[in-house]
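Table S7 (text form). Paired inputs.
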Amino acid sequence: MSDPQPLVPEDVLANAKKLVGLPPIVVICGSARFVTEMDEADLRETRAGGIVVRPSFDRQSPRRLAAADPAESEALRVRLRELHRAKIRLADEVLVVGDHIGDTTRAEIIYARSLGKPVRFTHPSVAPGA
């Protein structure tokens, strides 16, 4: 009899979510210019019983996170990108919001698909390969 395959971290996370009875987790991706559409998608997904994670935006002062030092701003941009990728890893599926996909969102879609995450689009006509 062969030894069972060791669990990979993704399996451990999926099992833990099942054990504690978490509903599906949906991560919203898309350009900051679609923040209103993200709000609407957040509400729809929450009403459908999902846990929603999404990019954070400072609507009162959008530039507040920007630093005067370009190196510091770049470091922050990298940290925020990595935080969003962690949200993608945590999620059960990805919802791409908006009628345009830029380079950053395209990279997030590629990343999510590389992890085997299902990806939905509010505007399926913009889906890469559509």
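Next pair, protein 2 of 2.
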Amino acid sequence: MIEGIKTVNNFDFKNQIALMRVDFNVPIDKYYNITDDTRIQSTLPTIQKILSEKGKIILISHFGRPKGKPSKTYSLKFLIPFLSEKLKLTVDFCENCIGKNVEQKIHQLKNGKILLLENLRFYKEEEEGNENFAFELSKLGDIYVNDAFGVSHRSHTSISLLPKFFGKKKCIGLLMQKEIQFLNKFLSGKGKKPITVILGGAKISSKIEIIENIIDFADHILIGGGMSYPFIKMKGGKIGNSIVEKNQIIEETLNKILNKCQEKNKKLSFPKDVIIADSFKNTANTKISSIHSIPDRWMGLDIGPSSIKYFCNIIEKSNTILWNGPVGVFEFPNFSLGTRFIAKTIAKRTEKGAFSLVGGGDSIASLKMEGCNNKISYLSTGGGALLESLKNKILPGIKAII
């Protein structure tokens, strides 16, 4: 754990009001049915710990991007039946986050009960990092608890400013504790070797620092998805119309990364072949091409059969595995095969004793699609927060608790 950080286990919540920041920004369908409740389920142990000690809980969260204005579309009210059912108790709701109305409702709250406040982002001050808003929120609880790993990389009021109004009465929840422990286990580089990192997704810019940070201890770094094409282009390959972030600084850094890998004799691996398409849609015409010679007007949208075999062979021999980001345009079923193979192979390898850490919406979605999400050592609830942590940065939400 990080030195100086308290967890909920350091406090007794009897007769105390826990102001608990959670990340209930969950995906829903048009009928407001939750399509993936991982983030809520992951927070339940912290909630149950506080309730079992006869504490009171005020839950605060954001949902969507209402841009500082109240709106029925982004109300958190839809969570009440779901939370009440999961916790087997009536969860109350308040249409505001600050003010006399909220304070009155909290005053009436009994021990062992929960009150969910309305969407924090209905107040523009939440995303602005506003001291006054933080102060008003701080009046609502005795102990501040952050169990919202998924947003702890953001310098928003409820994450980075609010804790300072609680002095020493602030801590992280059990979910945050788990996230930090598993990340530390990976970032220490002391995991059982070989250590393999699979990085995918469209943007290379968000992951350059990660590659720089893990070169020293990773044995294999597998690059797939849109991230691979800038490297291939730089090495003189023809990539047709495949996605490329154009940026001089990116090019210089990629060069540095390639040189560093060569110096340290580290394996930076790219797809050998790709499934190319003549347009960016699921029904596009397709064929298999070498990643180094994609014809003009064609674009790579998934890794090909040789690449799947090559990547999966490396994963099968690995003992510590981290994966973030799909290796193809996963949202198109016709270009999801590579990502799904990676998911299945990591799950199988984990069952044989490897330690695996997976984060990012698409990576987790592919595991669920293959029915193997329960076979991974740890599923991270944060996409952006996971990426920031992998750059070896202390997240604002963690810094504010120390």
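The chain has a mean pLDDT of 94.
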